[in-house]
Amino acid sequence: MRDIQKIHLTEEEWLIAASDNAGAIGEMEHDLVNVPLEIAASHTLRVALMECLAVGAAPFSIILHNFIGNKAWKRLSASCDRLMKETGFEGVSITGSTESNMTMMQSAIGITVLGRVAKNLYRSGVTPLNAGFAVVGEPLVGEEVITKADRMVSLSLFQELCRHDGVFELIPAGSGGIAREIRFLNPEAKFIDCELNMHKSAGPASCVIIAYNKQFTNDLKNLANGLFYPVHLSG
Fold this sequence. Notes:
Blueprint: E1 5-8, E2 13-23, E3 25-26, E4 33-34, H1 37-54, E5 58-66, H2 70-86, E6 93-98, E7 108-118, E8 132-137, H3 144-147, H4 155-163, E9 167-172, H5 178-185, E10 191-193, E11 207-212, H6 217-224, E12 228-234
Parallel strand pairs: 3-4, 5-6
Antiparallel strand pairs: 1-2, 2-7, 5-7, 8-11, 8-12, 9-11, 10-12
Helix pairs in contact: 1-2, 1-4
């Protein structure tokens, strides 16, 4: 099952909901990873947005859950708005709520992205048996997301992969690791071989698994620019 919820809107359209959370990441004294709030917000939104785009949905609303206090709201929402504009989705509404009654010891936020997709364009379960598989980007978590940012798949590259004619499906990797996500694309695979750590958390979707037409292998390698890691499956 994908990390999204699919809801029937009409005979022709699905509503897609995708969420992500970040805890102990921010500017508070007891946070385990110290980064500006803007980075925590943009990386959390990044995951939910990628999950939405991966199945072909166009985002129209962001729901922000802020546990850092009222003063943080403007910075968090502005960061979300900026990321959406950078990815070409201007005018997406941002709403949500702030925990203002209790003071937290660590930073915590949650973000949900809502999108729409025509049922005939829904992109899941369409990978043929003869597809190739690869990881684009590397699994990164915690401080690595900052120190090794050049090894993470960018949102612009992810969007190019979404539009590429040779890509059947994409799944952003999460905390469960690459192997878990690949089994969504090929449940029959018993052995998975890749030079990357297949079970390490990929944090804020630092890498993505693609199922692709093997005729486009060289084209996709060039597009990934050193971030293309083939995956070999066997039953």
